[in-house]
């Protein structure tokens, strides 16, 4: 068995979870925050048999899309009379950051 951990954008999460469910794949959705942008994203925990990994990754691939986000630089401390123009920096995010891990044991108690 494998555990797939996929960090996806909020806009894609519901569609990805629905598509996984349609394929009979269970998932858990956790609200998370990206360390770099400090913006909300969604982490999906997906436990699958080894033979379902490819199918689950395809569902994520088909439902999670790359998007541009904007990062506003923090203004430096300015001296009196100085001013700072904060131009947002464009960052490409996603479709998904995916980890696939082997599971030693899986139990439902
Ligand atoms: P964030 O950490 O908020 O990163 C958002 C996007 O900012 C990243 O998109 C990447 O394009 C850029 N970025 C991140 N760190 C950077 C840095 N040190 N310098 C320059 N640009 C940087 P993605 O790579 O698609 O990542 C999307 C989200 O996936 C991340 O949100 C984070 O929540 C997660 N993630 C990405 N790599 C990870 C890793 N190695 N371990 C754990 N989570 C990861």
How would you describe the overall organization of this protein?
It is a single chain. The protein is an alpha+beta fold. It has one domain (2-102): Alpha-Beta Plaits (2-Layer Sandwich), CATH 3.30.70. Helices cover 22% and strands 36% of the residues. The protein has 2 helices and 6 strands, in the order βαββαβββ. The protein has helices at 10-22, 53-63; strands spanning 2-8, 28-33, 40-48, 67-71, 89-93, 96-102. The strands form 2 sheets. Strands 2-3-1-6 form a 4-stranded antiparallel beta sheet. A two-stranded antiparallel ribbon has the order 4-5. The model has no long low-confidence stretch (mean pLDDT 94). The protein binds ligand 2BA.
In a nutshell, what does this entry contain?
The protein has 109 residues and is of the alpha+beta class. The chain has two helices and six strands, in the order βαββαβββ.
């Amino acid at each position: 068995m494998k555990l797939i951990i996929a960090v996806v954008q909020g806009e894609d999460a519901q569609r990805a979870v629905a598509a996984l469910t349609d394929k009979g794949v269970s998932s858990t959705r956790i609200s998370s925050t990206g360390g770099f942008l400090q913006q909300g994203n969604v982490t999906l925990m997906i436990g699958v048999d080894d033979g379902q990994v490819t199918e689950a990754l395809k569902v994520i691939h088909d439902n999670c899309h790359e998007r541009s986000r904007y990062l506003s630089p923090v203004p430096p401390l300015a001296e009196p009379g100085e001013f700072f123009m904060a131009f947002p920096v464009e960052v490409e995010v996603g479709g998904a950051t995916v980890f696939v891990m082997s599971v030693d044991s899986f139990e439902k108690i």
